[in-house]
Structures are given as C-alpha cells and as structure tokens.
Amino acid sequence: MKYLLILALLLTHLPSMAGKQEQELALIGEGNATYLLFRVYKAKLYAPPDTPQERLLDIEVPKRLTLEYKIAISREDIEKAAWQILQRQHPEDVLETLRPAVDRLHQAMQSVEPGQRYTLDYRRDGQLTLYFNDAVVAQFQDPVLAQVYFGIWLAHPPLSDRLRAQLTGTL
Hints:
By secondary structure, this protein is α+β, with helices and mostly antiparallel strands. It has one domain (about 25-170): Chalcone isomerase. Helices cover about 45% and strands about 25% of the residues. It has five helices and six strands; from the N terminus they run H-E-E-E-H-H-E-E-E-H-H. It has a six-stranded antiparallel sheet with strand order 1-2-3-4-5-6. Strand 4 (about 115-120) and strand 5 (about 125-130) form a beta hairpin. Helix 2 (about 75-90) crosses helix 4 (about 145-155). The longest helix has 23 residues, at about 1-25. The radius of gyration is 17 Å and the shape is globular.
C-alpha cells in the first residue's frame, strides 16, 4: 500500500515536471521544407527564449523540433535524406562512430502520411525523445546524437539554408 501511495504521488507530479520543461521552451521559428515545389513538411523549432542562434546546437540547450508532414513519405526515404545531409556535414570517420546511434533512431521511425508528425525533444539532462503523433517511440541518453540529428536542420550546411533561417528566426 505504501508503494502505491508513493507511485500515485509521483504520477501526480509528472505532468508538472513535463510542464516545466515545456514552459522553458518558446517557439523560435517555423518554416516549410520543400522538394521540387512540393511542401514536404512544416517544421517548428522551440528553445529557451532569448537563446542566441549560435548556441541552439549546444548540448546544454534544451530544444524541440516538430515536423508535420504534408505528403506521404516512406521511412526509407526519411532515412536516406537524413544520411545525405549527415554525409555533407561530417567526415566518414565521424559518421562511422555515429552510425549505430543514428541507425537506432531511424529504426524507431515509420512511414508518414499527410497530417502525421515527428517530434524530437532534447532535455538538459541529455535525454533525446522521439515522438510520432505524440506517442513516445524511442528514448536515448545521448547528447551527441541529439546534437548531430538537430544539426540536420541547424548545422552547416543544413538541409535547407532557407529553412534553417526560418527555424532560427534569422529570415
């Protein structure tokens, strides 16, 4: 009985802890990813208010990126596109080190239909959570994976210079 009471107390405090994380984050910017004139997804980036653009990828900075898809895309195409950007951003020896973690993240993904969304949420404690339509599909205690994967949109060269500028509020 004592354990049930403790569990009940913990569960009643979980929403307020999650809410605290959300209160720390504000919409920094939003934009559309396009491919051959098609809107692929709408992206929104959240971070603590007044975070300088050059610090958005810092391991200490919590952040959230949501991608709401406008067209259907297979999981394989999502993975292929991510690896193309990562190969532009990192040398092969670095990619080989990152490959197991990135592969685990990709394995947690699935194909998307219009209106569905992925959310990457990174907390100060180093936890990276992948959501699909608000359901947790994977969690990692890996700040480097978070930094590298958010870098697809925020590092140089990004997926799209225009989208990066929209997300970081510099456009």
